Fold this sequence. Notes:
This protein is an all-beta fold. It contains no helices and two strands. The protein has strands at about 105-115, 120-130. Strands 1-2 form a two-stranded antiparallel sheet. The model has no long low-confidence stretch (mean pLDDT about 80).
Amino acid sequence: KVVDVPQIEIEEQVVEVPVAKHVHVPMIQKVQKIVDVPQIEIEEQVVEVPVAKQVQVPMIQKVQKVVDVPQIEIEEQVVEVPVAKHVHVPMIQKVQKIVDVPQIEIEEQVVEVPVAKQVQVPMIQKVQKVVDVPQ
């Protein structure tokens, strides 16, 4: 025969457990203690303070006064002073020189130029020629 046996299921659960703690609380004690307190000594000293005095200040008054100031008159006079100057004057020398001068001789020639009309017109042509002229 088959028998059903129940199975055990384990379930875990976190449970907070309060912990009792021992805390040391300090105990206050009052103790008397003798303390030396320094004494304050007051020393007085006489200091002279200057006293402000009222002094009468003389009043300055400006008065205009007319004064004659002598004027200086300047008189100019032109005086001619001769000045001695040394001037170098160049000396000019005349020298004769014979120079050949080319002479130009104009020679005219009559040249016949044919025209398209077959009319003959004389034409003048000027030619320059260098000629030595004896002196």
